[in-house]
Write a structure and sequence with these properties.
The protein is of the alpha+beta class. About 55% of the residues lie in helices and about 20% in strands. Strands 4-1-5-6 form a 4-stranded mixed β-sheet. Strands 2-3 form a two-stranded antiparallel sheet.
Length: about 110
């Protein structure tokens, strides 16, 4: 990953409490896993931003290296990697995701 790509990722994470690196965007997810993440965050009513990795190969490759996580989507809360679609579903079902997001919004 180039220093410029790392700086872009760092900036996105700093500027957005909830950031999703996904295929498509929150209005038009381009895969089922990305859609799952968008639906969960919408149900929680939390403001979040997305970046379309399909439109930016440097970010698509860079975020995988950044997180040491091989798949997309990737969800970050307060700059911390939370997980992908399966982990978000599990955290949501346990009621833990709501707590994570509420703490982030309050900070």
């Amino acid at each position: 990953m180039t220093p410029e790509t790392k700086a872009r990722i760092d900036s996105l994470l700093k500027d957005n409490k909830v950031m999703v690196f996904m295929k498509g965007n929150k209005l038009m997810p381009q895969c089922g896993f990305s859609n799952n993440v968008v639906q969960i965050l919408n149900v929680l009513g939390v403001p979040f931003e997305t970046i379309d990795v399909l439109a930016d190969s440097e970010i698509r490759d860079g975020i995988k290296e950044f997180s040491s996580w091989p798949t997309i989507p990737q969800v970050y809360v307060n700059g911390e990697f939370v997980g992908g679609s399966d982990i978000l579903i599990e955290l949501y079902q346990k009621g833990e995701l709501q707590q994570i997001v509420e703490v982030a919004m309050a900070s």
